[in-house]
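[09:14] KT: can someone run the structure on this one? pasting the chain below
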Amino acid sequence: MKALVIGSGGREHTIAWKLAQSSKIEQVICIPGNGGTADEAKCKNLNGDAVEIAVSEKVDFAVVGPEDPLSEGIADSLWAAGIPTVGPKKQGAALEASKDLSKIFMEKYGVACAASKTFTDKALALEYVRQHGAPIVVKADGLAAGKGVVVAKSVDEALKAVNDMMDGEFGEAGKKLVIEDYLQGVEISVLAAVSVTEKSAASGKACIKAFLPARDHKRLLDGAKGPNTGGMGAVCPPQDVSQNTLEQFQKEILEPTLKGLMAEKMDYRGFIFFGLMLTKDGPKALEYNVRLGDPETQAVLPMMDFDFADLCLAITGENLSDFEMKWKPGFQVAPVAVSGGYPLKYPKGKVISLDLEKISREGAKVFVAGAVKNSEGGLATSGGRVLACSAHGETFDEAWKKAYRALEGISFEGMFYRKDIGLPGAAESN
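[09:31] RB: done, structure tokens below
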């Protein structure tokens, strides 16, 4: 079989790598891919229109990595061209593309979440903040590359966020705001496979199956300090998530979400990402993302003890309810190396040195995010988040030491990474 992976980040490298492990997969075509997928076994990078390439290459199915093409309807176009696609159609993708719509959905179907109000009038939004007080959370309604959320600890900070967003900091994405009550706790991520269609809903086979929980570390510096980033590393599973918490999540968030997808008659065959806050009253949903998380994917997919291609086929074929997911025991730790200056201005084109023997000795895997092949055939930086170094251990301590020892075998000018991914005190707490 041939698979197509759309996207160019660390998430997509991980998806392509996991698909290539399947004995069913002969080739993975990555559009456009990156320097990591260029060297990955069974993989090749192509540039061009995804639908045209999918048809001309006669791929058997496609997996869409990022949110932007999903919100623009790429899954609808691929299905229309006869390509089974892992990724929701445009209607389902709106659960991430509009925070207002997702909050309406959560409240309609009883998903445990923070109370919120939506504003399109700046004066009313500012007045609400003044009356409500702080702490409070201000969110741009539309897609803002993971940066459109401000957890304001003071009224002044919240007022500034409202002004910045509605005055165009994120373009059209900030013209509408969702202002939420502040939730006290620590965050985790739960990624899940989804297969919901009118047919599967009618037959009782509509299904969401959660993966192991994970935690992304958003702040740039150790101890959850510094500015927000796209993610400085991930661990799977976090050590502080109890079975009781997961059961509450299942009952109060996962099951109501499935009920809503069925009731709204969505064609949602793909993945969903639950951003959760663990509060004293149990887990609360912060947001939906309509794809796998990055860098959570780099920690979660290596824990899969099943054929990822089979999972994708079960999703598109509406057989997910019959699919058994097995997981490796132990832990996966995946710190991210970033360019100097990130998340602000940073240089590109820095040559990456990899001590492959050292990395291999630790059993680690490097997932490339912002790096391309250079003229010498090696890798050079092309983005802020450059790569993740992911390692497994039977204990968290073993996984952590392997990942960081392997990371010592990687270098490029200006390289920076957090030293505390997964450790106590590393998770940001509100």
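[09:33] KT: thanks! The chain has 15 helices and 23 strands.
[09:34] RB: yep, looked fine to me
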